[in-house]
Specification:
Elements: H1 2-7, H2 26-38, H3 46-52, H4 57-68, H5 72-90, H6 95-101, H7 107-118, H8 122-138
Length: 147
């Protein structure tokens, strides 16, 4: 038997293409993202999202992360911060109003997560955006501000 192993030619290695399995189907991914975006200002439980996809909570969470690269909670948080940035930039709503509109439990929690995400607190971010908009409006057309 040892003689056969010594003289046997190694089988050629053919890499098997990696299948992207384990994620949500495109239809389920669209469904759950739409559900999240429609209810961004509400309290969302992963269990509800899993039920909408007819999956267990743990299977849904793994599949969602496989499909999006983020856990359901992180994806929701990112969408809420994105909405908050739009509201901060384009409305005169207070940060308290924005935090509640975006589904955060209170302004302190919102400010903490915003700062962790953006590296600056939402009030300072708003000030930067307002300054940026004012400087763009005050420049004559064709002129660019020097850096």
């Amino acid at each position: 038997m040892a003689h056969v192993q010594q003289n046997a030619a190694p089988a050629p290695f053919t890499p098997v293409p990696k299948k992207s399995t384990g994620g949500l189907s495109p239809q389920r991914e669209r469904l759950v993202k739409q559900l999240i975006l429609e209810r961004l200002g509400d309290s969302l439980e992963v269990t509800e999202l899993a039920q909408a996809c007819a999956l267990s909570r743990s299977h849904f969470s793994r599949a969602f992360k496989c499909s999006t690269g983020l856990s359901p909670q992180d994806w929701i948080r990112r969408q809420r911060i994105t909405l908050a940035k739009q509201l901060i930039q384009y409305t005169d709503m207070s940060l308290t109003q924005i935090s509640l509109e975006c589904g955060f439990c209170d302004q302190a929690h919102f400010c903490h997560l915003f700062t962790r995400s953006e590296g600056i607190n939402p009030f300072a971010w708003r000030c930067q955006m307002v300054r940026g908009l004012k400087s763009k409006r005050s420049q004559p057309s064709g002129m660019h501000a020097s850096v």
